[in-house]
Every structure is written in C-alpha cells, then in structure tokens.
Write a structure and sequence with these properties.
Chain B: This is NAD(P) transhydrogenase subunit beta. The complex is a heterodimer of chains A (98) and B (462). Chain A is mainly α and 98 residues long. Chain A contains 4 helices and no strands. Chain B has helices at residues 2-21, 29-51, 58-81, 87-110, 120-147, 157-178, 186-205, 213-235, 238-262, 266-271, 293-302, 312-316, 320-332, 351-358, 369-374, 394-397, 448-461; strands spanning 305-310, 336-341, 366-368, 381-385, 416-421, 441-445. Chain B has a 6-stranded parallel sheet. In chain B, strand 4 (381-385), helix 16 (394-397) and strand 5 (416-421) form a beta-alpha-beta unit. The chains are: A mainly alpha (98), B alpha/beta (462).
Chain lengths: 98, 462
C-alpha cells in the first residue's frame, strides 16, 4: 500500500501516456508508417536526457564510467539526430507535388 | 529555476505528442517532425543547464560535448547516404543505438558510487530498463544484419530452447537476488544480467524468418521505447517516461497491425514457425496463360483505369522509377493509375509507400488495401509487380492453404490481371497461387524493370 501511496502520481502519468500514445498513433495512415516508425525511434532517443544527467554526476577520475557514459551519450545523440534527419528526408518526398 | 525546467519538460512532452499527431497527414507531417526535434533539443539543453554546477569536472564536459558532436555528424551522414530500399536496416541500426544507450545507463547507474541507498523499486526499474535496453541493442543489430542479407535464419531447436532458458533466468535471477539468496554485490549482478540479456537479444532474433522482419523491427522499436520509459522511471523524469511510452505504444500498434496483415500470431512469428504447405499441386502443373510485352502495352493503352499492385520484387528490381514513368505516360492518355499497397509490402511497415514517394508518385494515388478492394471491379487492368502471396485468392477460399485467412488484395475481381514475374518460383510462403490459373489472369515473365521499360517503349508507339 505504501508503494501505491508514494507513487500514485507516476502511476497516473504512465496510464495517461499509454492512452494518449495509442490514441494519437492509431490515426496515422498506413502510407506514413515508415516515417512514423523512424520518428518514434528518434523520440526514444530522449534517453539522452538521462545520459546527460548521469554524465554530470560522474566523478572526473572515474574513467571506466566516464567511458561508458561517453559511449551512451554518443549512441543517444546518434539515435536522435539520425532519426529526425532521416524522417525529415522521407517526409520531404511526401510533400504535395507542384 | 526548478519551475522553468519542469515547464520545459512539459513543453518537450507536448512537442512529442504534436509530432506524432501531425503524422496523421502527409501535408503536416514535416512540421510535426520539426516540432518534435525542437522539443528534443530543448529537453537535452535544459537537462544540461539544470544539472550543471561549477564542481562538474572539465573532463566530463569535454567527453560529453565531443560525443554529442560526433553523434550528430554521424547521424546526419548516415541519414543522408541511405538508399530508400535500405531504410529498414538504418531504422534497426538507430534502434540499436537507443537500446545500447539505455543499457549503458543502467550499467553506470548500478555502480555503488551513484546508487548508495536506493530503494528496491528503483533497483527493479533499473534492472528492467537495462534488460530491455540490452535486448533491443543486440536484437536490432542482428535484425539489421539479417535485413542486409549478411546473416541467415538460424532455426534450430537449440537456439529456441536456449533463448527460453535465458528468458526464464532473466526473470528468476532478480527475484532470487532480491530475496538475498545471491551473495554478490549489485553492480556485478547487473553486469551479469546485461550479458545474459545481450545473448538473449541475439538468440531471439536469429530464428525469425525474413518475411517476418516487419514484425520484428516494430517489436524491437517498441522494446527500446519501453526501456526508455523504465529508465525514465528510475530518474523520475517525466519527459523520458512519456517519450518512451509513446514509442512503446507506436511499436506495439505497428507490431499487431503487421501480424494481422500476415495472419500470423505474434507467438508464431517469434518462434519462427511457418505452416507447411499441404497443397499437392506444384506450380509446374498449373495451367497458366502467358502474355507478351506488346499485348500488355496494348491492353494498357485501351484501359481507362489501371491499378498497380507492387511488392518487394519491384524494389529489388529497382523498377519504382520506371513504373512511375509508365504511370505518367498512361496519365497523358487520360487513364488513371492507382497503386494498391498491401500493409506488408516491403521490409518494414509502410516501406513501399516511401519507395514510391521517392519515385515521385503523388501520395493521393497510393491506396490502402481496403480502399482498393472496394473499387476493384472498376479497374480495367491490374498489374501485379513483384508481389505474390498478397494477391493469392486461396487466402479467402481455400481453408487448406497455409495463407488462408490472410487479408489480400482481391486483384482477381478486376477485369484483367497481368502478373509480372521473374519465373515460376513461389512466393515467400512457398504457396501455390490460385490466381495464375484464373481466366482473367495472364503472366508476363521477365525482369520487372526491363519489362516495364519495354512496355513504355511500346506505349510511346501506340
């Protein structure tokens, strides 16, 4: 019971997000499913927020964790930049033809 | 300050919702993508500003900025260079990076220096994020290798069996650990789990068949999202939780959609199972009618309404552009050309639409399966290019057929069907196609691109 009392906000938040996510995504037409997927992929790169937060906490002489953190930041950034750029490139092709 | 950060995260979350919402129409989707990207940059910058203090060592800052700069450049390069046919590989690769990031976060956070006296809930969430991240990481890499044709399906009992044992271990070990029955520290335990999860990711994708790849990519995408959400819960960071859950929802939505479109249950896809063909008739025994290029061109020149049903064979032959040329030529003759696209055409959800859009086909000409089926009888000629199982009428009227129950494009209801094929090989499902024997169907053999080019040449003469 303690657990629920402490975390009730998070629980509400998670449930609402699930419903919003399904609601928004089910309206996407099948012609845009590939950009939807690569765009969603880019959004999952928001994990970078966690990596940046973590990187600021690691002691400056803890080289193992600094290396791991650096790789994590590189991977997260790659996910975001690649994801949004490639989605943009695809969507450009769907622009109305003049 | 606190309030500004919170508002910034809220705006970032909203930008993700808007970005996905704008994907509902091709016209606004570009704006949506931009909004989501801006929201993302804002969230990252705010996190930096909020966490930055004078005590942060320079080493950390330098590593961080260098990693961000290299990541951005590499991402831009990769996305500029990719061919549209290679899109599924690239999306898998980016998915692997997201999963890898989640896994590394879990590993670093497990270090006792950072997690000294955390409660059980955070530890469980951390492990959940780490395991899902690691599975998405190696799974996506294997998926990418398979899509690139570098790794073959590897379907033995050993693989399937060990994958199940690993899955069981990953559930049981944390339970045993948290009851205090494993005498090791938290960090070594987490490293061991990450190792198991990475092996599981490989074994989990290996047995899955090439035709089922659209399902797997969607599923892995959703797993990365879930990993992000778990990690977000560890930090209590709302923008990570929301972003992760949206991606998880999108992935699961597409996974189920792909499964329905292939008439396969998710469990069967994951086990790499396929129903064996029971039909005794081999294709050699089928009575088929062949058609020549000039006859095809003639039929097209008299048609008022033409539909093209493209399959991945069209993309393999690199014939999208030639096909679009033919469309333009026919449109000059006051003939309408529609494309009817099956949900699983291509190697990932919606892949065929992207390939055709690249060839400058207007998206209003791209019809979904149901839309096309409703007006099928109005089409004078239907050209099936590089598709097979998705037009097999056996899916509707032969309960013995392995494809029975799969939703199909009812091309046989059109006035005339011309199937362009390289030879009499079977489709992915290895199933006899009843369409070929029907009275209104004829086959045009040859490479799709060459045939289409010849048709164009003939049409110009008529």
């Amino acid at each position: 019971m303690d657990f629920i009392n402490q975390h009730i906000q998070e629980i509400y938040f998670v449930i609402f997000c699930i419903f919003i996510g399904i609601e928004v995504i089910s309206n996407v037409p099948s012609i845009l499913h590939t950009p939807l997927m690569s765009g969603a992929n880019a959004i999952s790169g928001v994990i970078l927020v966690g990596a940046v937060y973590m990187m600021l906490q690691i002691p400056g002489d803890d080289y193992l964790n600094l290396t791991l953190g650096g790789i994590a930041i590189f991977l997260g950034t790659l996910n975001i930049s690649g994801g949004f750029f490639v989605t943009g490139r695809m969507l450009k092709m769907f622009s109305p033809k003049k | 300050m606190e309030a500004i950060i919170e508002i910034g995260y809220l705006l970032a979350t909203l930008s993700f919702i808007l970005g996905l919402k704008f994907m509902s129409s091709p016209k606004n989707a570009k704006t949506g993508n931009l909004i989501a990207a801006i929201g993302m940059v804002m969230a990252v910058v705010l996190t930096f500003v909020a966490g930055y203090t004078e005590t942060v060592p320079y080493t950390n800052l330098i590593i961080m900025l260098a990693a961000i700069a290299i990541g951005t450049i590499v991402g831009k390069r990769l996305s500029d260079k990719v061919e549209m046919t290679g899109m599924p590989q690239l999306v898998s690769l980016f998915n692997a990076t997201g999963g890898g990031c989640a896994m590394l976060l879990g590993l670093v956070e497990a270090n006792p220096m950072h997690l000294q006296e955390t409660e059980l809930t955070s530890q469980i969430l951390l492990i959940a994020g780490l395991i899902t991240g690691a599975i998405a990481f190696t799974g996506s890499i294997i998926a990418e290798r398979k899509l690139a044709g570098k790794v073959k399906d590897y379907r033995t009992m050993g693989v399937v069996f060990s994958a199940r044992i690993l899955l069981l271990l990953m559930i049981l070990l944390p339970v045993i650990y948290f009851f205090g029955l494993l005498p090791i520290g938290f960090a070594p335990f987490v490293f061991a789990l990450a190792g198991l999860a990475m092996i599981y990711g490989v074994l989990f994708v290996l047995p899955i068949g090439g035709a089922d790849m659209p399902v797997v990519i969607s599923l892995l995408n959703s797993i990365t999202g879930i990993a992000t959400a778990f990690t977000g819960l560890v930090y209590g960071n709302k923008v990570m939780i929301a972003g992760g859950i949206f991606v998880g929802a999108a992935g699961i939505f597409l996974t189920l959609l792909m499964c329905t479109a292939m008439n396969r249950s998710l469990m069967k896809v994951l086990a790499g199972k396929f129903k064996k063909s029971t039909g005794a008739v081999s294709e050699e025994d089928q009575e088929i009618k062949e058609i020549s290029v000039s006859e095809t061109a003639l039929a097209l020149s008299f048609a008022q309404k033409v539909a093209v049903i493209p399959g991945y064979g069209l993309a393999v032959a690199q014939a999208q552009h030639t096909c679009a040329q033919m469309q333009q030529l026919l449109e000059k003759r006051d003939c309408t050309v529609d494309y009817i696209i099956h949900p699983v055409a291509g190697r990932m959800p919606g892949h065929m639409n992207v390939l055709l859009a690249e060839a400058n086909v207007d998206y209003s000409r791209l019809k979904e399966m149901d839309e096309g089926n409703e007006v099928m009888s109005q089409y004078d000629v239907v050209l099936v290019i590089g598709a097979n199982d998705v037009v097999n009428p056996a899916a509707e009227n032969n309960p013995d057929s392995p494809v029975y129950g799969m939703p199909i494009i009812r091309s046989h209801e059109a006035k005339q069907v011309i199937v362009m094929k390289r030879g009499m090989s079977k489709g992915y499902a290895g199933v006899v196609n009843d369409l070929f024997e029907m009275d209104n169907c004829s086959l045009l053999f040859g490479d799709a691109k060459i045939s289409l080019q010849e048709i164009i040449n003939q049409l110009k003469l008529i």
